[in-house]
Amino acid sequence: MRDDAADRAPRMAGRRARVFVSVAALSVLTLALYYPTLGHGFLNYDDNVYVTENPQVKQGLSGESLQWAFTKPQSGNYHPLTLLSHMLDVELSGLDPAGHHRTNLLLHLANVLLLFGVLTRYTGRTGLALVVASLFAVHPLNVQSVAWIAERKNLLSTTFWFLALLAYAGYASRTSLARYLAVLGLMVLGLASKPMVVTFPLVLLLLDAAERRGWTAFHRPESPSWLRLTLEKTPMLAASLACGLLTMQAQSAHGAMQAIDAYPFGVRLANAASAGLWYLERAAFPFGLSAFYPHPGPHVETLRVIAGLVIVVGVTVLVLWKARSVPFVSTGWLWYLVTLAPVIGIVQVGSQAYADRYTYLPFVGIFLAGAAAVAAWLDRRSSTALWRSAGALACLVVLALSLIARSGLAHWKSSVTLFRRAVEVTTANHVAHGNLAMAYVADGRMGDALEHFRTAVEIAPQLASPQMNLANALTITGARDEARRHYERAMQIDPEDPRIPANLGLNLLDDGQPGAALELFERAMRLDPDLPGTRQAMGRALLRLGRADEAAAMLEEAVRENPRSAQAHARLGAALAATGAVDEAIKHLDQALALTDDPAMTAWIEHRLRALRATAR
Questions:
Q1: pLDDT tens per residue across span 489-508
Q2: Residue 368: left if φ>0, alpha if ψ -120 to 50, beta else—which one?
Q3: Structure pTM?
């Protein structure tokens, strides 16, 4: 016994040393690849929706914002924990994008290390875990999840996924109610970050199968039946079902599921088969990546559909046939299929054909299956030279993927670089042209912006958003009559979009037609009472119509809606001054002055304050 203990001590010390070196290597690899994101800015693609133009998130953590996060879906999703993480970033870093990117980077690093821990716990093989975690750390398709602030939900939900897997390993080794509740609680936190976690109970059943075959580095003290194992997952399946229903309701209310009607089931099924092939191609050859890939609609290539079905079915049959002789290959492949299922496009959300971010969790299964197959092949040959050659090859693959990822990372520096790249590598991409145009507007390049807005309209004349965006740009350039024609066309296409009448109302208000503008603002408010900025616009129209009391009441609501808005306070101050409430007007103008950093607004507020204080004296 003493000899066994003496032998075991060096082995344990050697294992701890390998784990330490692996953790250090993974940390250096991840941080070295992604540290340039700390110099990147916010994007005009959902970063504005989640952070920079979101009045609740910009408040930081407050009682009001906390209540909003848990009661209001955002962008068609219910993910309150993700919203809280954005609010925490605002508390810590304000609107400095470096702080928000830092959180994404640290979450990805945490996920890399957690994945290493999960695979070490389940497989007992440090080398296998290191290879899979390295591929996960640097694969170019993961750049979108890390470099895009709006994809915080992907990173955060995966963190809770991996933590729940570690908790489940502890529960399976020694069952108890407390350990089970820990697994369930971590899964629910993942669901509150992103609905992608709905497949977690099914993946646990895959890992149960691996444990029953004796593949895992731990074993249950008893051998529960499949019925018991399934019943054990029932509360988790119920949580997944509730989250799925809530998400579908939120997506439907947001309009993100309109593509279900736009694309018949046969089209969606064909694109799903083609997407399955696309993901496998990009796993091995991650080139030509884009922020957005337009849906081909009924024009999916038949050969790609057939190839996708044949490859997926063929590989599934093969890995199941060889499952008992090749540990974790079938587990990895089925992990990939199960976790990709919610986003493969059978239930179409949005107008993309596929997306890099959808592979963040599923590709773990691909990496595991591939690494496990190579490890099993090497185990049967027991050749030190082959093991060393495989290790060197793995290092070269990780290095090559790192270089490709670093090249792709540069495109995420700004909206201009991101969507200019998307226009280069895709065709008929109205989203890329539209967002590139909006980036040019922000840079003051109105000529370039109009060119790309018009291209977006030509590509998708049946959609309302490109028409509205072109109209917004034309309004800025002073072409209000042409802009109104596009607003009216947009309203014909989508009469339920509140942004269109709101923007047309602003066009008319600036053109000296406050009465017509007010009617449009009221329509927008009926469609969406929470549409940001509409109350301010209504207050301006009411004030121009000489209805100062109504304007002040409406602008007070606007200030309550967004207490950090300098414009809301300034306009409320102007309305109160018109009602004769000079002291209250001065108070709100002072607040506006403290909140703004715009020189033109500062000069206007100071002028009004001087006039009001002279009147008060």
A1: 999 999 999 999 999 999 99
A2: alpha
A3: 0.90
